[in-house]
Amino acid sequence: MPTDATFYAPVGYSPWWPLAGAAILILCLGWFAWVWNSTRAGAQAGVPDFVAPRNPNSVRAKYWALISSIEENHDAGTLSARAAHLELSMAVRTFVHEMTGLKTQRMTLAQLREHQLPLVADAVELYYPGEFAAHSEHLTVAGSAASARNVVGSWR
């Protein structure tokens, strides 16, 4: 068996392989960081997916005026107690939608509580007899309007 005296060195790797490996490692670490960051608790405890409005004070003032308008229309006799309670409920729900971005206009009471909105859920629960009962003696529009103002005023 003849031997050749020439030495053949091993074939070297391309310089692109370590770069490709580093890029894959960086992508994996970036993905883990994204998953960790997107699954942690939000900055606003109590309201998931909180999206602050551009000017919350103007939103608050708009709904205080709307609540006062509903109460004044009821006192003037142009709005029945049932219609006033329906409008107050919709005003509170729409206010929360504008403040948080949650679609609260069609949520049930249980869903409002699930989304950690207890003050809103309590107010909406207070409006139910005025909205759905044939006659509600213990519930006044003034008391319901005060409850709506409490929701709007306590929102931070």
Range of helix content = 55-70%
Q: What is the number of strand segments?
A: 0
Output the radius of gyration: 30 Å
Determine the N-to-C terminus distance.
Answer: 90 Å
Please report which band the strand proportion falls in: under 5%, 5-15%, 15-25%, 25-35%, 35-45% or over 45%.
under 5%
Taking the sheet with the most strands, its summary is:
none
Query: What order do the helices and strands follow?
Result: HHHHHH
Oligomer: single chain
SS-derived structural category: mainly alpha
Give me the number of helical elements: 6
What is the average of the pLDDT values? 82
- Describe the global form: rod-shaped
The low-confidence runs, each spanning 5 or more residues with pLDDT under 50, are: 42-46
Transmembrane segments: 16-36
Keywords: Membrane, Transmembrane, Transmembrane helix
